[in-house]
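Dear colleagues,

As part of the handover before I leave the project, I'm documenting each prediction I ran so the next person doesn't have to rerun anything. This entry is a single chain, and its sequence is reproduced below.
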Amino acid sequence: MALPETMKAVVFDGLYKISVQDRPVPKIRNDRDIIIKVHAAGLCGSELHIYRGHQPSDTGFIMGHEFTGTVVQVGSAVKTIKIGDKVVAPFTASCGNCFYCNSGYSARCVESQLFGCETLDGGQAEYVRIPMADGTAVKAPDTISDQALLLMADIFPTGFYGVKSAMELCPSQNVQDATMVVIGCGPVGLCAILAASHYKPRHLFAIDSVESRLEQARKLGAEPLNFESDKAGLEARIKEVTNGRGADMVVEVVGQSPALRTAFDIVRPFGAISSIGVHNKEIPWTGDDAYTKNIRLQMGRCPVRSVFPEALKLLEQKQDLIGFMFERVMPLSQAPEGYTLFEQRKTQKVVFAP
């Protein structure tokens, strides 16, 4: 299939600066590559780490690691994907064959590449190249809507993984007797709340400082607690329902040190902190603090390709509850406005339609 020479793409230009530019349409570089025409591309909170300068980056690359589309070109070594297939790609490309991929840790594939950074252009564009397609791309299942499919690139599996990890850290704890807390009610946090509610913990709390997000968390089944207006009150409330112990499981989604410190403060001894936020270098407690409290800690990137089947089964049951994620669908040409709205927390989620 003959493709155009150029396309529109969202390019990172520096701190708080992105632009829509004409860029060459990507080509097959390796016989394991595919090229897709993008249907939808999400704007994720992780992009804000680059946009705000929290994650220092070079400029000039195409943004975006959440996207779906139709395959238009296929490398000669690709076996499981064909032209015309509708696919979603997890936010990290993976080979599917190494020790980590075979162990369920695809996020740490020895050939892993992250979409939307200096080394691999992202999907906020009309076309995108997917390397290692057999180990990365997933054919669109017919059990979820096109909108829900976009969430499977990152935020729903990541929220699910955060909850699953917290439960696995406390194997002797009956979840239905547990108190679970999700810190951060952006899109990933709300997906975590949606996943947590499925397992019916006795108490499910949501912590944030934005009232509109807390209201959405309440609608999904969590008791909202405002970090900014009543930090002492939220800690007291959690202790009230746990006989003074603290939360059994905390899922930290924000990726900032104050949120991680809050997780430490509210978790009980021998409780679990599952941190899926993208953090900087600082850990806001000492080794002595952690030793004294016997915390169980899991941090890091979600292995989306590995947890995809299990997360998909849950999303199939919950997809009717996620319509609020798609209230702001914008053409690619309005990407600068979309970034501003999302950065200022004036919208729950932004989706670009190239």
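The chain has a mean pLDDT of 95. The chain is about 30% helix and 25% strand.

All the best with the project,
I.
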